[in-house]
Amino acid sequence: MSDVVQLINERLRADNERLIAGFGAPALPVTFILSQARAASTLFIQVVASCYRIGHASNLLSRFSDAPYIGAQLQASLEDPDFTSSFRTDFVTSGPAEPHEWGWFWRRAIGLPEDTYYLPEGQTVDIAALTRTLGGLEQALGAPLLFDNIFAQCNLDHLRDAMNRLLTVHLHRDPFYVCNSILNARLRRHGDLSVWYGNCPRDYDRIQALTDPVEQVVEQVWSTEQEIAEIAEKQSPGQHMKIDYDDLSSDPGGVADRFAASLSDLGADLTPRLTRPKMLFTSRNHPDQVNPVFADRLRRCFRARFGYLPQGIA
Predict the structure, then answer these.
(1) Which of the four pLDDT bands, split at 50, 70 and 90, describes residue 173?
(2) So what's the pLDDT on residue 1?
(3) 91: pLDDT strictly greater than 90
(4) φ, ψ dihedrals at 287, nearest 5°
(5) What is the DSSP track for the chain?
(6) 164: closest CA among 15, 6, 28, 64?
(7) What gap in Å lies between CA 47 and CA 61, rounded to an integer?
(8) Strand order from edge to edge, sheet including 240-244
């Protein structure tokens, strides 16, 4: 965060707290995405936001980590009622209205120490403060809230009391291709296959101690799959939905409509955009996308851990 943005947040912090003092929990369901890294969670928000009005954290709002209600008011005042995403991202999105993971906010809201993904045992979240903030965001944005953040995902059990209803959306991509994409991201982002990329599961210390970076990634994805399954099992019927990566690629509008229908079943009807863009994306779940640099090791490690290989992967 730049010095100027930090200064703005410091100046607005007290006013933000005064403005949200009277808010309670959001009246509408709050949605959290459950996702592996590289499973198209950003694309999902871009698709939904291009079809319906939804209260997502934008790049503009993300600058207001200490004054989110004020940032949300500004986001709402500048919103294009016929917003269409660029559907572009290269690790991060570009453009004030495009979605942002908002890690600065969630780390502070949960009270996470630096370099930690999970709240330490015995430490609790300030639920009253989070309730006021989420209630204020819903009021300012005028739509149900939708978040895509790994810190929130990892600590969802600690956040449930801050909202009346919680919907989870599991964006599922074949774990083999998640592994392939994370390994490629290590190379593209860091230029080094051994440098960690993505979330840190609870057994990060065990995984990080492995000497083979391909085995590391396979174990990272395996552990994250187990954690997502545990979260999904705790959700009540009707408050969890699963969306497949290939469906999002081939029928993005249909996926957005399914999400809208799930919210409608929970009493929250989304407002459609005035026009809907034509959307069709190329799935990268294809054997041709597997990087030959590590393909043999990936096949070997993945089969050993997951017990299968996708169709077309020999």
Answers:
(1) very high
(2) 61
(3) no
(4) -55, -30
(5) --HHHHHHHHHHHHHHHHHTTT--S-SS-EEEEEE-TTSSHHHHHHHHHHHB--EE-BHHHHT-SS-HHHHHHHHHHH--TT-------BSB--STTSB---HHHHHHHHTPPTT-SSPPTT----HHHHHHHHHHHHHHHTS-EEE--HHHHHTHHHHGGGSS-EEEEEEE--HHHHHHHHHHHIIIIIS-TTS--S---TTHHHHHT-S-HHHHHHHHHHHHHHHHHHHHHTSPTTSEEEEEHHHHHH-HHHHHHHHHHHHHHTT-PPPBPSS----------SGGGS-TTTHHHHHHHHHHHHS---TT--
(6) 28
(7) 19
(8) 55-56, 145-147, 30-35, 166-172, 240-244
Specify the pairing of strand 30-35 against strand 166-172: parallel
| Structure tokens that stand for 43 in this block | 């694309």
132-152: average pLDDT:
98
Side chain identity at residue 48, one-letter code? V
Take residue 161 and report the two structure tokens written for it.
């009391």
> What token pair was written down for 98?
């495009």
Tokens of 51: 């079809």
Angle, helices 68-78 vs 127-141, to 10°: value is 10
The reported pTM is 0.96
